[in-house]
Amino acid sequence: MHPMLNVAVKAARRAGNVIQRASLNLDTIRVEKKKSNDFVTEVDRAAEQAIIDVINEAYPRHAILAEESGAKGMGGAEFEWIIDPIDGTTNFIHGHPQYAISIALAHKGQIQQAVVFDPNRNDLYTATRGVGAFLNDRRIRVSRRIQLNECVISTGFPVVDQSMIDTYLAILKDVIGKSAGARREGAASLDLCNVACGRVDGFFEFNLKPWDIAAGSLIVQEAGGIVTDMHGEQTWLESGDIVAASPKVLAQLLQIIAPHVKG
Ligand code: IPD
Ligand code: CA
Ligand code: CA
């Protein structure tokens, strides 16, 4: 395993311990509202600190972009770690076991290493650019389904910024009508990993943040999938608008989504 990936795995497992210990006493956890439908807990912060401590110990000069503490280090740094300590905080608060730790490492702006750790299933998803994607050390591939009407598509509802809810619902209506079903599970990093190992055939969501998608996207790409924005372009990390699937399914999803969205 690449040494930088090894550090990411160590950090993710450390955070997983913090989170799972806290999950035994959910009632005592303080929850704060960042904005409407956007929550943070002391556990998010403690898990994030545990991750940063591991990374700082190994690579004190690397920059860090983390959801709860923001950006640290020099702008334009060669290496940047992109961290979501709990992706799926709303699920976590509700004791709904669908959340993960997401850690990516970008080198000169390109994501090179990725870890998504699901502490409830003890599932560790990893990828190194050019080397492949793995679930618990076994190679994973995107699904082989070709026809959209046989495909299950996952998505995320726009609950924080609802300015485009009507557009979103029109897209969802078309996707439901033309696929074998839609799923909303509540943790974008795991949605992407589910695409990578073929448990769902595609995923789309608007307005995500880099820490939601940086790691999961490399895992999809290294599993043979494609990641684009709603117009098939490569702006997804900046725009947060993302579609991920195998090449054939992606084309059919874009045909549904793009006409609803201004270019
Ligand atoms: C959220 C999850 C969710 C997605 C939201 C994200 P958080 O991340 O990934 O699936 O729909 O848009 O904000 O806030 O739980 O880290
Ligand atoms: Ca997130
Ligand atoms: Ca989070």
UniProtKB/TrEMBL annotation:
SUPFAM superfamilies: Carbohydrate phosphatase (SSF56655). Pfam families: Inositol_P. It comes from the Bacteria. Keywords: Hydrolase, Magnesium, Metal-binding. It catalyses: a myo-inositol phosphate + H2O = myo-inositol + phosphate. Its cofactor is Mg(2+). CDD domains: IMPase (cd01639). Mg(2+) binds at residues 67, 84, 86-87, 212. InterPro entries: IMPase, Inositol_monoP_metal-BS, Inositol_monophosphatase-like, Inositol_monophosphatase_CS, Inositol_monophosphatase_SuhB. One of its GO terms (biological process) is inositol metabolic process. GO terms for molecular function: inositol monophosphate 1-phosphatase activity; metal ion binding. PROSITE patterns: IMP_1, IMP_2. Gene3D superfamilies: 3.40.190.80, Fructose-1,6-Bisphosphatase, subunit A, domain 1. Its EC number is 3.1.3.25. Belongs to the inositol monophosphatase superfamily. PANTHER family: INOSITOL MONOPHOSPHATASE, INOSITOL-1-MONOPHOSPHATASE-RELATED. This is Inositol-1-monophosphatase. It comes from Crenobacter intestini. The lineage of its organism: Bacteria, Pseudomonadati, Pseudomonadota, Betaproteobacteria, Neisseriales.
